[in-house]
Amino acid sequence: MKTFFLYLILVLDETSYIFHKVTFSYQNKPITCDEAFEKFVIHKEGNTYYKRFLVMGHHCEDLTGNNYIGHQEKLDWQLNERN
Q1: CB 57 within 8 A of CB 48
Q2: Which of 31, 44, 79, 83 has the greatest count of CB atoms below 10 A from its CB?
Q3: Residue 58 to residues 1, 12, 18, 68: CA-CA distances in angstroms?
Q4: H or E, element range at 54
Q5: Residues 20, 56: contact at Cβ < 8 Å?
Q6: How far apart are CA 28 and CA 24, in angstroms?
Q7: Are strands 16-26 and 53-62 parallel, antiparallel or unpaired?
Q8: Which helix (H) or strand (E) holds 35?
Q9: Integer Cα distance of 54 and 15 in angstroms
């Protein structure tokens, strides 16, 4: 099982924000950081929300703190599925 963390930058008010960490795992078919992001947020009237907070940005990290994008893992999985 592959686990990574989705970090959301949430706006609290006009002058402050917080980082919110969401744990995400997959077993067989890899998922990209952007796909995980889309599973947790709602797009409404040109803005992006997580629960009731406006989302200012996001990024993902693996368990060792390295940047996780997931595109290479997904591509490798898709190529192996064809063989």
Answers
A1: no
A2: 31
A3: 22, 15, 11, 11
A4: strand 53-62
A5: no
A6: 13
A7: unpaired
A8: helix 33-40
A9: 13
Nearest to 50 by CA among 14, 21, 8: 8
CB neighbour list of residue 39: distance below 8 Å, 6 or more residues apart: none
pLDDT of the residue at 72: 86
- Distance between CA atoms of 57 and 48, rounded to whole angstroms? 9
Q: What is the pLDDT of residues 21-50, one digit of tens each?
A: 999 998 888 899 999 999 999 999 999 999
Distance, in Å, from the CA atom of 66 to the CA atom of 26, rounded to the nearest integer, reads 17
Tokens of 72: 């290479």
Pairing of strands 53-62, 47-50: antiparallel
Q: 2: which strand partners?
A: 26
Residues 9 and 66: their CA atoms lie apart, in Å, by: 18
Ramachandran angles phi, psi of 32, nearest 5°: -85, 165
In this prediction, residue 10 carries a pLDDT of 98
